[in-house]
Amino acid sequence: MMTREETSRQIAGDLLKIKAVFFRPEEPFTWASGIKSPVYCDNRLTLTAPEVRTHVEEGLARTIREEYPEVEVLMGTSTAGIAHAAITGHLLGLPMGYVRSGAKDHGRQNQIEGRLEPGQKVVVVEDLISTGGSVLEVVEVLRDAGAEVLGIASIFTYGMQKGIDRLAAANVRNVSLTNFDVIAEEAAKQGYIRAEDVARLIRFRNNPSDESWRA
Question: At a CB cut-off of 8 Å and minimum separation 6, what does 46 contact?
Answer without folding.
Answer: 14, 15, 18, 20, 52, 53, 56, 155
